[in-house]
Amino acid sequence: MRRFNKTAIGLDIGSRFIKLVELKSSGGNIILNKFGIKEIPKDLKLDRDKVTFQLIAQLLAENNIKERNVNICAAGQSVFVRFVKLLQVKEDKLKQTMRFEAQNQIPFPLNEVAWDWSLLDTGENTTKKAIIAAIKKNIVDDMISKLSGIRLSTRLIDISLFSLYNCMVFNEDFSQEGLGAVMDIGMKATNLVIFKKGNIWIRSFPIAAERIEEAKDQGMDELIGELERSVEYYFIQGGEELKGEKKLDELILTGGGSVIDGLESRIAERLNIKPKALDPFRKLRVSKEIFSSLQEKGAKNQLSIAVGLALRGLVPLEVEINFLKETICESYTSRQKNIHTRLSIVMAVLLVISFSIFMRQDYTVKRAKLDRIDKMLDLYNTYEPKIKELQGKEDILKEKIDILCQAQGSRAIWLSVFKTISEILPKEVWVTDISGIVSLEKNGLGRLDLGGEALSYQAVNNFVSSLKSAPEFKDVKPISSSIEKDENTGEEIVRFSITMDVVTIES
Q1: How close are the terminal C-alpha atoms of the chain, in Å?
Q2: Domain 333-503, CATH 3.30.70.60 — does that match?
């Protein structure tokens, strides 16, 4: 079962304003706990990145927010998005299918991008529709690096367009039947999502509040023209599925530029449709104090994307894209692998220590017996035959002690064996079971059996080849291998076992 957080912070860094929202889940309700807005100065002489992240730190401090993990988003212009149709695909093959689609749809090698996908519908008897999104890894790394500069971290990087759409759908502030659009008008760019019964289309374009302030009516006409063209594109990409009159039945506005004087009337005149404002808090619980503050600051229309970001992790949403998903999965796998390796080494060390303690105790007992024999020899020195008999027994005991000491020393070989295995162990392979014996004879051969898990057969073959190349092992042979499903992650893994001889090198 999927687990959700109790609180989440959405941080929307725009070109002019920084918006922050903290939501809390309590008793089946989502509560608007805190919010804040900071304007980024226009002074071109300032270091914009430095000032921006100083303002973010101020927002957190002023709102007394101690949580250091935030949800952020990438701008629509910096991401690559494709909508794909899938034939009936079994659930266990869906991830593999989407990776194949990503390789075909994304115009960059997958190792150069962070990418993710999300289904738009999950009906069993319908053709599935999915979204594939990608962003250059250097952009993601830059975002994470800048956050770490003010001691913040993130486990989610969404896309601003989908955060906007999720906010609208969660609040059920739209019509379920007609062709609708939600338009977030920022300072430098406008985000647009066109939707109808689960079929969506997105677009970002650089005509927004700044252009309208500069060109007045002409800027408004340019914005409306882009909206009209977007509706045309939507019908073109929808093919035979979309029929009827190519006009909007509903237009929802949000963003700082949506309140520009005359814009709504201009849109109504050109498109013959009356726009309405998106209410990002329609289904949230808002205290009177916070509601008054929202009204006073006129911030309601600017927080839609930040609300959509904060909702991630609190409730299931319509479109769930996270460019850090693969990184988080790799981190989890790496942690699991390190835990298995460390436990194996600890067990080996405990085995050596336990055996050493046992050998010391055994040696102490036998040494005490020898001491008593010595005293008896001194006492019965006159009995030559008895002395020789006792000396013979002493020689036998000493020989046994030498053998046992040699056996004790041979156990140290295990440390070298485990060290070698740890150094050559591939990233995609982890060891879960170790057993074996080491020869008591110098330059003799011991035996070692390994069991483990891997992400692929190739990783197992690489591991076997590395073992064969190591001077400590001879006659390395794979015993068995099989593909099974991991109980924790649901992904396919290869379980394997290997046997080999261990060379006891004379020191």
Answers
A1: 56
A2: yes
